[in-house]
Each structure stands twice: as structure tokens, then as C-alpha cells.
Amino acid sequence: MAYEIPVTQARAELADLINRVVYAGERVVVTRHGKPLIALVSAADLERLDALDTPVEERAVTTVSAAHEVASASRDHHRFGLTAEHHRATPS
Asked: Does residue 79 belong to any structural domain of this protein?
């Protein structure tokens, strides 16, 4: 639940509002005439919101490219009856 405050009051209490967002983890909605105008959120919340704007395909590619390659254990080849090995091609 966000804390709502009129814009006129928010001007006078900006430093306190920033502290509430940063240290207390609150979200503050600044209103004008009772209608939401803006929201003050932490930088971490903003990063999560930005991530939601990233297309799913782009997030998947980023996740896959960031994954570490896992080396296969050669002893498991015989254990599981594997007869072939894959070797990455070296650039010419």
C-alpha cells in the first residue's frame, strides 16, 4: 500500500518523503486534487519496473548468454552408456 500525499504538502516534506522511500521501503504517491500524479519509489523498485518493460525474448537471450557453461564429466559418459562426445569447433 502506498502512502498518498498532496503535491503542496510533498513540496514541503520532500526530504522526509525520500527517507521514507529509501530507508522504510515505502512507496509514496503524490496527488493533485485527489488524483495520483506521480510516485516516488526506490531505485530497486525502478529497476524491477524497467525489467518488466524489456521484451520477454530479450530477457531470455540475456539470461542464456549470462549462463555459465557446465563442463561434462567424462566418467559419466561410460556410466550412462554415452558413445559420442561433442567438441566445440575452434575458430579458423
From this structure: no
pLDDT digits (tens, 9 = 90+) for 2-49: 889 999 999 999 999 999 999 999 999 999 999 999 999 999 999 998
pTM of the model: 0.55
Name the DSSP class of 1. Answer: -
Q: 52-76 burial, b if ≥16 CB within 10 A, otherwise e?
A: eeeeeeeeeeeeeeeeeeeeeeeee
What CATH number does residue 24 fall under? 3.40.1620.10
What's the structural domain count of the chain? 1
